[in-house]
Automatic annotation (TrEMBL):
Its EC number is 1.8.3.4. Residues 9-24 have a biased composition (Polar residues). This is Methanethiol oxidase. Pathway: Organosulfur degradation. It comes from Sphagnum troendelagicum.
C-alpha cells in the first residue's frame, strides 16, 4: 500500500508526518522534548500544516454488514489525491460504532523525551471494544496494534460504552465510559489503560462516579477535571425520545473532580439552560481557570469558571434560540449544538448546530461575552427545497440557503469539527450517531455522509466554504458510510492538553 501511495505523490506527506509521530518537527522540538508542543501558541505558530486526516467511518446501524473503519484522507492541496480517502483500516467486528478517538501521548507528555505519539485509541461506543492503532511505521496506512475486548473492561471495572480518550502525563490513557454493559447510566465512570493498553481499573475513587458519562477535560494547574453528561446508553442508542429527558435518562450536570485524586469536588446542576451537556473544553492556556461546555438540547454554550473561594460556577455565554417551525415533529426546533472547539490562541470558539444547519465562529477574547464573527449554512433541516419552514412571529416564513459543492447537494447537518493548528481551516463532518442520523437525517444512512473544509478569517472573523475540498463517503467501495471525528497525526486542538 505504501508504494502505491508514493506513486500517487504522497511521499512528502509521509516524510513530514513520520517526523511528527517520532522525533517531531525540527522547527519546534529538540531531542530532549517529548510529543506535541511546549505551549498552545507554539503549536499554532510552529506546527506544520496538516497533510493527513484520520476520520472514524461507520457502517454500524446503516444496514451494511461491514466493519467500521479508520479512513486516512489526503489533505495536502499539492497532492494528486487531495481530498480523497487513500487508506481504510477496518475493525475486526461488526456493530462497533467507532466514534471519538485520542492519542496514547500528546502535549501533556511534552516534558518526557521517552514518550512518543504513536498509537491512536479508538473506543467503540456500542460494542465497548477499544481498538489501538499504530500510526508510526506508515502514517498513511496505519495498522491495528491491539484490541481491548469489552469483556475485559466490564469484568475488571464494570464499565462499558467508552467515549472520550485522553492521554495522561504519566503514560496512562483515560477513557470516559457512559454506563454498564446493560446500558444503565449508573455504571458510568473513567477507565484507565496503562502504557501497554492493559486495563488498570477505574480512575475515580469508589463512590465518586458521575451520574452520567460523556466527555472530560483535565487542568492540572488548577487540580481539576470536569466531565459532562449525555445520557443513559439504553436510551440514546435507540434514538432520541423527548420523554426520556423528562424521565431522567439524560444529563444536565457537570461533575467537578479533584485532580488527580479522583474525588468529586462539586456537582453543578445546569438546569433547563444546560440540558444534555456534551463536549467540554478548558481554554488552552493552562493558567486560565475557565472553559465551556456545549449543551445540545438547550442549544447553549455554558461557560464554567473558578471563583475566588476556589469553587466553580457557570453562566450561559451563548444561547441559540429554538426556531418556530412548520412541518416538523415538534413545533419548535433546537439548534442542537453537538460539537465545539477553541482555537489554540484562545481567540475564537466554533460550534455546529446539527439540526439548524449552521457553523458559527465567536470571538472569545472576553470569555464571558462572546461576539459572533462568522456564520455559515452548510446543511440542516430548514434548507431551501425541504419540507420544514421557519415561521417568524409576524407570520413570515423562510428557509436557509445551502450551497452545492462540486455539483452535489449537501446532506445532513454540520456535526463534528476540527481546526487546523494555525486556525485557518475548519474540517466538518456530518454524522452524529447512527441511530440519531437515521432518525433525523435518513438520507445519511442511505447515501452516506461527507466531509467539508471551511476557510476561516482569523483577522476580522468570517467563514467560507472551500470549493476544492469534498470527501463524499457515499462513494466508498463497500457502500455509503458515516464519517465522524477527525484527528491529525501530530495532534490538534481537541486532542492535546497542556499541563
Amino acid at each position: 500500500m505504501a508504494s502505491a501511495l508514493e506513486e500517487n505523490g504522497l511521499s512528502s506527506a509521509t516524510t513530514q508526518t513520520s517526523s511528527e509521530n517520532g522525533s517531531q518537527a525540527h522547527c519546534c522540538h529538540d531531542e530532549n522534548s517529548g510529543p506535541g508542543y511546549a505551549t498552545p501558541l507554539d503549536a499554532l505558530t510552529l506546527g506544520p500544516r496538516e497533510k493527513i486526516l484520520y476520520v472514524t467511518a461507520v457502517y454500524s446501524g446503516t444496514g451494511i454488514e461491514k466493519p467500521d473503519y479508520l479512513a486516512t484522507i489526503d489533505a495536502d492541496p499539492e497532492s494528486p489525491t487531495y481530498s480523497k480517502v487513500v487508506h481504510r483500516l477496518p475493525t475486526t467486528h461488526l456493530g462497533d460504532e467507532l466514534h471519538h478517538s485520542g492519542w496514547n501521548a500528546c502535549s501533556s507528555c511534552h516534558g518526557d523525551p521517552g514518550a512518543q505519539r504513536r498509537f491512536l485509541v479508538l473506543p467503540s461506543l456500542v460494542s465497548s471494544r477499544i481498538y489501538i492503532v499504530d500510526t508510526a511505521a506508515n502514517p498513511l496506512a496505519p495498522v491495528l496494534h491491539k484490541v481491548v475486548e469489552p469483556e475485559e473492561i466490564s469484568n475488571k471495572t464494570g464499565l462499558a460504552f467508552p467515549h472520550s480518550a485522553h492521554c495522561l502525563a504519566n503514560g496512562d490513557v483515560m477513557v470516559s465510559c457512559m454506563g454498564d454493559k446493560e446500558g444503565h447510566a449508573e455504571g458510568a465512570g473513567f477507565l484507565l489503560l496503562d502504557s501497554h493498553f492493559d486495563v488498570k481499573g477505574r480512575w475515580e475513587k469508589p463512590g465518586n462516579s458521575p451520574d452520567f458519562g460523556y466527555d472530560f477535560w483535565y487542568q492540572p494547574r488548577h487540580n481539576i477535571m470536569i466531565s459532562s453528561s449525555w445520557g443513559a446508553p439504553l436510551a440514546f442508542t435507540k434514538g432520541f425520545n423527548p420523554n426520556d429527558v423528562a424521565n431522567g435518562l439524560y444529563g444536565r450536570h457537570l461533575f467537578v473532580y479533584n485532580w488527580p485524586q479522583g474525588t468529586i469536588k462539586q456537582k453543578i446542576d445546569l438546569g433547563n439552560t444546560g440540558l444534555i451537556p456534551l463536549e467540554i473544553r478548558f481554554l488552552h492556556d493552562p493558567n486560565k481557570a475557565t472553559g465551556y461546555v456545549g449543551c445540545a438540547l438547550s442549544s447553549t454554550m455554558v461557560r464554567f469558571f473558578k471563583k475566588d473561594d476556589e469553587t466553580w460556577d457557570t453562566q450561559v455565554a451563548i444561547s441559540v434560540p429554538a426556531l418556530q417551525v412548520q412541518n416538523w415533529i415538534l413545533p419548535q426546533m433546537p439548534g442542537l449544538i453537538t460539537d465545539f472547539l477553541i482555537s489554540l490562541d484562545d481567540r475564537f470558539l466554533y460550534f455546529s448546530n446539527w439540526l439548524h444547519g449552521d457553523v458559527r465562529q465567536y470571538n472569545i477574547e472576553d470569555p464571558a461575552n462572546p461576539v459572533l464573527t462568522g456564520q455559515l449554512w452548510i446543511g440542516g433541516l430548514i434548507r431551501k427545497g425541504g419540507d420544514v419552514w421557519v415561521e417568524e412571529s409576524g407570520g413570515e416564513v423562510w428557509q436557509s440557503t445551502v450551497p452545492d459543492i462540486q455539483g452535489k447537494t449537501l446532506r445532513g447537518g454540520p456535526q463534528m469539527i476540527q481546526l487546523s493548528l494555525d486556525g485557518k481551516r475548519l474540517y466538518v463532518t456530518n454524522s452524529l450517531f447512527s441511530a440519531w442520523d437515521h432518525q433525523f437525517y435518513p438520507s445519511l444512512t442511505e447515501k452516506g455522509s461527507h466531509m467539508l473544509l471551511v476557510d476561516v478569517n482569523t483577522e476580522k472573523g468570517g467563514l467560507s466554504l472551500n470549493p476544492n475540498f469534498f470527501v463524499d463517503f457515499g462513494d466508498e467501495p463497500e457502500g455509503p458510510a458515516l464519517a465522524h471525528e477527525t484527528r491529525y497525526p501530530g495532534g490538534d486542538c481537541t486532542s492535546d492538553i497542556w499541563v
